[in-house]
Specification:
Structural class: alpha/beta
Strand order of the largest sheet: 7-8-6-9
Number of strands: 11
Order of helices and strands: HEEEEHEHEHEHEEEEH
Largest sheet: 4 strands, parallel
Shape: globular
Number of helices: 6
Distance between the termini: 21 Å
């Protein structure tokens, strides 16, 4: 969604294709899509695969493998955490493709807040994104935070309709909305642009596939979510 909105705002017409919606723009020569919806039947000069570190995810990783090996593009730019470099380099070698590595420094500093929420939920401030990994916990946190702070909140999680997620993102990003605290799942790490000052994790565990037991949140996912704080061009 972020790419789709940015390109069209710049006058570069771009379609949007996800598992929930398809938005076609007349005259478009570009497509922004979720990795699962990437078309292997449409040739492109350049393809960009973001968040490549998720190739190791036990639930969605197959989609990154499919895109990396199957996209019919002259050049594929792969973006993400350097933890995936060795694997991508090996896959390129197996395919006989040329591999180039470019690394970049984060434009804004990111650090761990040693203090945390010393006064509990009362310490949550505008610009904070509180992350929980179940819908039940998201709504539980919302009730507790609004009670402790007297402030309105926004919520975002994957099962919400796409338009509702966008509406909540716009509300959170608007400094005059009065709803500038975000409570979200790991969905904030993909697709939407947020003006986040600080990310607060309520837990470092999430339900495994099947939902019967909890496992540690993968390091790559922690870094992906935490990296949403203070991003370049945000108000923080």
């Amino acid at each position: 969604m972020e790419v789709y909105e940015t390109l069209n705002h710049m006058g570069v017409y771009c379609d949007l294709v996800t598992g929930q919606e398809v938005m076609r723009v007349p005259g478009s020569g570009h497509v922004a899509c979720t990795v699962e919806m990437a078309s292997l039947g449409m040739h492109a000069d350049v393809a960009v695969i973001d968040e490549i570190q998720l190739i190791g995810d036990d639930q969605r990783g197959f989609a990154w493998s499919r895109a990396l090996l199957g996209l019919p593009a002259n050049t594929i730019h792969v973006c993400g955490d350097t933890s995936a470099v060795q694997l991508v380099r090996h896959m390129a070698a197996l395919c006989g493709d040329e591999f180039e590595l470019h690394t970049y420094d984060r434009m804004t500093p990111l650090k761990v807040d040693a203090g945390g929420l010393l006064k509990g939920w009362a310490d949550v401030q505008p610009g904070d994104a509180v992350v929980a990994f179940s819908r039940k916990d998201i709504y539980r946190c919302r009730k507790a935070i609004e009670s402790a702070t007297g402030q309105r909140t926004c919520i975002v999680y994957g099962a919400l309709p796409a338009e509702t997620r966008r509406q909540q993102a716009r509300l959170f990003n608007d400094p005059h909305s009065g709803a500038n605290i975000l409570i979200a799942s790991d969905a904030i790490g993909l697709g939407l642009n947020f003006n986040i000052r600080r990310v607060v994790f309520t837990t470092m565990q999430k339900f495994a596939k099947g939902g019967r037991s909890k496992v540690p949140v993968p390091v790559s996912l922690v870094k992906q979510i935490a990296g949403r704080a203070g991003r370049r061009n945000s108000i923080y």
